[in-house]
């Protein structure tokens, strides 16, 4: 006579059966126990005995069970086996590991670049700030030889004496001077903003 066929279950199914069995027995017991005080010594003792009964019943039935392909008759405790089976270990993923290494490399590279920026950017901004200050201050100021813009304009010949080409050159020059003078307030505002950036970056 062939041996009876064993019941094949997953660990999740086996735990579900155990928990449902325990819940049904606990409900039946609570129905017949007097009172509902969870701290009552009698109730606590009965619940302990019921829990031990469920564990023992599962233990006795293990010889007829195959859980996740493993013969439960070969284990010492089916309850311990079901607890251990909840720890699922994912297989090693080479692609994911390579992606992780790439991300770490990018983080390292970004960290190095950020470190260099913290060291170099304040110096660069400081140089630009100084250069912009000089350029802005030079507009309309005397040259190294002491020549001012007003002096140059006074020495220009009357417009009537200029030919068409010289007139156009003079007109364009005056327009450029006007543009530069009009840009001074905006440039000064940008200098102030640049100075604030310099202070912030320098504090990093």
UniProtKB/TrEMBL annotation:
Matches recorded under InterPro entries: Mis14/Nsl1
An annotated GO cellular component: MIS12/MIND type complex
> What GO terms describe the biological role, i.e. biological process, of this protein?
mitotic sister chromatid segregation
Q: Name one Pfam family in it.
A: Mis14
The protein in question is named Kinetochore protein Mis14 like-domain-containing protein
